[in-house]
Every structure is written in structure tokens, then in C-alpha cells.
Amino acid sequence: MNNRIENFGFVRVAAAVPLVKVANIEYNLEQIISLLNMAENNSVEVLVFPELCITGYTCGDLFFQQTLLDSVQEALLKILEVSVTKNVVGIIGMPILYDGLLYNTAVVFHKGKICGIVPKVNVHNIKDANEQRWFAMGNSIVENTQINICNQEVNFSSNLLFRTSSLCFSIEFGSDLYSVISPSSYHVLKGAEVVFNLSAIAETAGFDDLKHRINQQSLRCLSGYICAFAGFGESSTDMVFGGRTLIFENGELLNESSCFAMENKLSYTEIDVEYIRNTRRGNPAFVNSKINFSTEINTSVVCINQNIQKLEIISREFDTHPFVPTNKLELKEKCRKAFAIQVQGLVTRLNHTCINKAVIGISGGLDSTWALLVVIGAFDKLGISRKNIIAITMPGFGTSKRTHSNSENLVCYLGTTFKEISIHDACLQHFKDISHEDSCHDITYENVQARERTQILMDVANKENALVIGTGDMSELALGWATYNGDHMSMYGVNAGVTKTLIPHLITWYAENKNVDNKIKDILLDIINTPISPELLPTNDNGDIAQITEDLVGPYELHDFFLYHFLKNGRSPKKIQMLTEHAFNGIFEKEVIEKWLKNFYRRFFAQQFKRSCLPDGPKVESFSLSPRGGLVMPSDACNNVWFNFFETKNE
User: Is 3.40.50.620 the CATH number for 328-649?
Assistant: First the structure.
């Protein structure tokens, strides 16, 4: 398979921070050209430099000197000469004199030509940012203005958009981020998919506030957002400049450089422009804003005839477990929030139904264990005795000694009501009733057990005036890994919004943060380490689990990766396979990935009828599989356009 990233909508972008010497144009030019060459060698398509980097941002009243301004023009000419042999589109910060006024601008260039010049609009005159002393505001430039610079007639406007063969981008400056409505908010509604920010905001102890602001702008605009901040060499008379670079995509930080480097810095990664487009199409807030506000400004689009880069690999890393934050503090906070959401959902349902009892099946596995902990959290919050939680273990033909022991001990230690009801005899009788040989371990053999267990739970709930709590998770729902009208059914599914790969971390979080005694903690940790199994086939001679779920449907870490990129990000099978091979390189072979990806699509489409009648359950992630708005999909939708990829690939 050809993994050239242009086939998948990725565009490599970069932010460069050159060393500068204030007003030393020759030195600064040398650093800029060095970074331009570096970007070209790394197949960067669009490169942004900091604000006023040709002169240095802190020149002060030297900006009034014609000698300085003439030198800037000469430097730009040399940059253009160097760029003739480059494919990269450059965005450089420099002062430009027009009609007797000086402007702080971004010059966009490609292959020796100036594509357009964007003047800074929000020129501040507050505290230490006294820019109006030197520069006029960019919105003073009338529409369709052209300026002659370096013997070229060039568009000069604050509302220029630039379109290459790969993306549409716009430009703003650091202080624009502090506006009530920044220029980029309008630009994205006009078609900009990536925003490049030339900045010279000084480093402060509160810089994380600005970083959060950039994050939010990228998220609101559903765009890529790339910042280059002025760095080492700027005057430190009253301020220090950190020289950071930040690259965001739809609110996700993809690349961040350290600050205070004393060398030239180039940070690059790939923006998934296709993903940005997909997200915007499915986001009502963005669509409505585009309809309502895109006429607020007039923009001009400059087309740049740029060759698409030929890259064999992507440098960007993709998390193998997208539902599980890699940062420990973020993971802890996600676990806390997920638990709170699930608990509150059940609390609301119990209050609404005026029911103070719950029935839950306990298997000794991950899902039922976490569901039980959620139920306990809800009952504790409502001040209802844990004895009103009826936890039932229902041993069958495949129940192992390990899971049975963990189920019984956990329920007793947690103080809930424990019941054991064997399904053995009832299932044998049912086999007789439907003329099924109990030696035939087929799908009927398995599903009879699942439905018998659900019948027991429902009937006990009727008898006790209780709610049956469902334990199935979102990963199982995606695959349809549940017996229809068996474990598929409940009166409230608390786990419907959490994935299989997250649940072990949720249980670990509970064990470490909920003040449980060591006996409970040991059981919880052993449950986490128990193989995932429906335990519907007979155990082996030692009484151990003989049926492993992931041998049948595939590894859940792969399926959760598929689910995230298919449903949340709208990526194609071809793209998901490429990303999976990239993320799981050295963990799974390509053939294994393709096998389970194909199985994912087959099951996802074939099993929609089970999701179409799902019980209620709380949403935890940013998307859900609920048929009531989370996933509106007909049960008889065809999967052939997704399977065409596999058929074409194997021809």
C-alpha cells in the first residue's frame, strides 16, 4: 500500500523561530534562509516565522529609520531569490511602508513570488505593547489594494486567504487572540482550514493562559492553528521572549517546542485537513455560524500553484489508546469525570422512577465490576443502603473458579446483597425444549445461557421492584458483541458510554482513590488481569477460562482505535489502516490489522439492529452509539463502499 501522506489529507506544516539580533538584517537573513532550507529538506508545505523577525520585534524607534526599511526590502529580495528553487510556502514577518504609513505585516511567498501581504489589524497601544507608536492598523487598508514591492504588484489586505493544492489558510498575529472576535474566526467561515499566527508576545509566568486561549481558538474554529513566537536575541530591556512554537488541530496540541532555546528552531508535524473538513460538515454550530456570519467580511482568495509533497511516512504520532489519556493527571481526571457522569445518570433515573433497588449480574469480569461500582456510587450518593443492590452471580457451563470467587468475594466485601442462581439446570431443560443437543457448543448453546441470565435478572427486578442495570460497554456495542435480548437488554445501561480499553483504568482509579480496603483492592486488581471472556463455553480440565473474547472478535485495543477514527473522525478504511499500521508498528503485523479492521466493519454494519433498540445510558465520550441521536443509522445500511477498499487492495 502506498502510504504517501497526500493520499490521506495530511499536510506538513511548520513554525520556525530564528535567532535574531535587533536591527542586524544581514544576520537575521542568514538565520531565516537556514530555516527555510531546513523546512524544504523536511518536505514542509507551509512555514511560518515570528512577527517582524527580519528586523527583530523590539527595534522601537529604529522602525522610523529609512535605512532600516530599505535593508528590509533588500533582505526580502534575497529571500525571494532563495525561494525560487523551494516548494515550501513561506510566511515572514516584516515592516512595510505604504502610502506614508508603516505597517506590521506578514509576507506570503512561494518560488520567488510574493503571493500576498497581510497587515496586522489589532495594533495595540497598552502597557508594554506600544505598537501604535510605530504601526498603523491594518483595517485602514481599503479593499482590493495592491502594493508594489520588490518589483511585484501584490495584494495588500488583512482579509486575504491563501489556497494551495492541499489546503486553504489564513494569517493573524499574536495580539489578535485577545480580540473579542479575532480575524481567524471570520476567516475559517470563509474557508480557511489552517491559521498561521506570527507572534511576538513576551514570555510570562502566566503563559499557559495564552496557550489555553490558542487551544480554544483552534477548537472553536475547527482548524489547524500554528504559532511562531519571537525568541532569543530580542531585546530583554523590559521583556523576555521565549521563542515557543505551538501546533494545534481542532483543539488538540500536536507539537510544542521548549522555550528559551539559543539556536534556530524548526517544529513541524502534519495537519489532517481532511479530518478538519469532515468535522466541520458534521458540526451544526460551525455550519450555522458559516450561514449566519460568513457575510460579515469580504475576503479575497490567492491561489498558490504548489506541488504536493511526496512523503512516505508521517512524523506525527497517533495514540494507540485514544480513549485513554497518556498524561497521568489527565487520565485521573477523566476517570473521575466518567464515574461522576455514570453515577449521576443512574441517580437521575432512580429518582425519576421512584425506585430504590437495583439488580445487576456479576460475572467477575471488567464490565460488570465497573457497573457495580457505579451502582454503589449512585446508592451512596442517594443515601440508600447498599443492601438494596442485589448482585447476582449466575454460574453456567463456562464459569471459572477465578471469576466465581472474585464475584462472590467482591460483592460481600462491598456490602451489597449477594445471590447465586445457577443457570445449569434451566439451560439443560431449555435445550430439551427446543431439541438442541447440549454437546453441540454452537451459537444457540451460548445464547441460551445469556438469555437465561437476563430472564433471571428481569424477573428478580420485577419481584423486588428494582431496575436491571446493564453492564455492556461501548466497544461491545460497536461490535454487536452481545446476545440480542440477552445481555444486550437492561433497564439502564450505565456502561454504554465507556470503552473496553478505558474500563481497566477506571477500576484502577477506583481502587486507588475511593478509600477501599486492601481485600477489595486485591480483588479489583485481579479482575483487571483476568482474560476477557463471556464464559459461555465449558472450562478446561482445571476449571479455568477456555473461551477468550479477543481470539474471536480481535484485540479491543485495535477495535477501539478503529472506532475512534471511524466514528469520531470520519476517516476512511484506507486511512485507518495506514494510521493503525503507523501507531501499532512493531506490535501488530499488517495482515493482522487488516483482518480485524475488516471484521470491525463487517460487525459494525451487521449489528446496527442491536444498537437501534439500546436501553438508555449516559454519554461519556464526545460521541456515543445511542440511536436517539448519538448514531442515527438504519439497521439495513450497506457496507459495500467501505469494503471496496479491501477488495481493491487485494486485486
Answer: yes
